[in-house]
Write a structure and sequence with these properties.
Blueprint lengths: L2 H14 L13 H15 L3 E2 L7 E2 L9 H11 L5 E2 H16 L11 H16 L2 E4 L2 E4 L1
Antiparallel strand pairs: 1-2, 3-5, 4-5
């Protein structure tokens, strides 16, 4: 997302949690500056990267760093209202994670951490009603 949008989103999250109070976030204000500095630190520490000028992206390169909700997020990003083959959805979710979150992998292994975690996320979403499985296909619930 655009860097300014990311900073504003972070500030809004802080306000929602009661950790920041402001009427209007100003680019020359201390909160904006502190968040911008934190973003730059994140870039230096490789927690964010710059996919193109003026934009930043959160980076999770190692699949071991992904949490359950991260895998569900990846899956839900690619499954829509139209049914899709489960295997296609799993592979598309891994590709989405690579493109959107910087996940690094050479190839997807059936017994590897990526597909195993995505299968678990799919099962969780089916149990919770977020996804509906019919035969070998899934769609949003």
């Amino acid at each position: 997302m655009e860097k300014d949008e990311a900073i504003r989103s972070a500030a809004e999250g802080l306000r929602t949690q009661g950790l920041a109070v402001f009427k209007r976030l100003r680019q020359d204000g201390p909160l904006y500056g502190a968040i911008a500095a934190a973003v730059e630190r994140g870039v230096r520490e490789e927690r964010f990267d710059r996919p193109r000028r003026g934009f930043i992206r959160a980076v999770l390169r190692d699949p071991k760093d992904y949490r359950e909700e991260d895998w569900r997020w990846c899956l839900l990003a690619v499954v829509g209202a139209e049914p899709i083959e489960v295997d296609t959805a799993l592979r598309a979710a891994a590709e989405w994670a690579r493109d959107a979150m910087g996940l690094e992998y050479q190839r997807l292994r059936e017994d590897g951490i990526i597909l195993t975690s995505l299968r678990e996320a799919l099962e969780q979403e089916v149990r919770s009603g977020g996804l509906v499985r019919k035969g070998g296909r899934v769609r949003l619930g």
